[in-house]
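We emphasize that the prediction below concerns an isolated chain of 89 residues; any contacts that depend on oligomerization or on bound cofactors are therefore not represented. The input was used exactly as deposited, without trimming of termini.
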Amino acid sequence: MFSSDEEDDVILEKVSNYYFVDETDQPISFTVLPFQTSTSELRGHLDKRIFMCGDVVSTNSKMYEPVAAWKLELSDLKPTVCALTSKRE
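Result of the prediction step, given as a token string:
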């Protein structure tokens, strides 16, 4: 799942078959990204650009978005990992 921060509006999209790559398109773990706490505080620092690639379930389309952080949602019965993106650059 990824969240896009456009003008403070949160848009959640379910993504399948996802993976992360660095600036040179080399596979990389999402754990190198800063972690966002429930209070919107970012923990960690990102030295390079990381991109999330995958299939957007609702539109049946491919995605390739820069990722800024990740967070863990525990509000449902099943925990969800969210990658946070921003289309503003």
